Amino acid sequence: TCFSPPKVFVAFELIYSVLKTILKPPIMKSLFDDEAYSEIRNRLDNLSENSQRQWGKMSPGQLVHHLQLPLNIILEKTDYGFKPNWLVNLLFKKTMYSDKLWRKNLPTAKGFKITDAKDFASEKAKLAALLDEFDTQRSRNDWQAHPAFGPMTKEQWGKMQYKHLDHHFRQYGV
């Protein structure tokens, strides 16, 4: 005869697989990966001036301006005056590139808050240009230290950039 496990074991196995899926988040993508980069560019294309935010306060114009700021850091255009802080590094650095999604309504770093009105079309074009510039440097391995978080690997930089863009595109449902 064929052995069939008791129903309690089958139920346990089902519960375990569901919990494993819920408790272990998916692997965070990296903006250095072709597929992730294409996804982000498509999501940017789908963002419009009329997109409705699901949470937060930024307008679409402010959002596309805000999304440029971390790219300006990695592309070494500016550091926005951020200084290394061992406490911030200890408490937050790993959350910047970990596999766990950021929660809604997280506080924005002071230097990244955008309060003035921004023209959506021109800011979106600037963001697209920065993404293209970032993409041209994907083979580069010698990335500068982050001004607030210190040394970061290429993988950490790529995940952090993807995670930030993904967080805000989810904010606007794209």
Task: Give a description of the structure.
- α2 (34-46) packs parallel to α7, α3 runs parallel beside α6 (120-136) and α4 (68-74) packs parallel to α6 (120-136).
- The chain has helices at residues 7-23, 34-46, 60-66, 68-74, 86-97, 120-136, 154-171.
- 21% of the residues are buried.
- 52% of the residues lie in helices and 0% in strands.
- With 174 residues, the protein is mainly α.
- The radius of gyration is 20 Å and the shape is globular.
- The model has no long low-confidence stretch (mean pLDDT 85).
Rg value: 20 Å
Based on Cα principal axes, name the global outline.
globular
Mean pLDDT: 85
Strand content: under 5%
Detail the poorly predicted runs: none
Quick description:
The chain has seven helices and no strands. It has 174 residues and is an all-alpha fold. The protein starts with 6 loop residues before the first helix and ends with a helix.
Record keyword descriptors for this entry.
mainly alpha
Write the layout of secondary structure elements.
Layout: H1 7-23, H2 34-46, H3 60-66, H4 68-74, H5 86-97, H6 120-136, H7 154-171
Helix pairs in contact: 2-7, 3-6, 4-6
